Amino acid sequence: MAEIKYRRGKSTESGVIANERLTSLTGVLLLVLLALMGLTVFSVRRWLPEHFFLGFLLVPPLALKLASTGYRFGRYYTGDQQYQRAGPPQVLMRLLAPIVVISTVAIFATGIELWLFGLRFGSIWVEAHKLSFAIWLPATGAHVLGHLTRTSQAAVEEISFSRSASAITRRSLVFGSLLAGVVLALASLTYASPFIFFRDG
Question: CA angle 80-83-85, nearest 5°?
Answer without folding.
Answer: 105
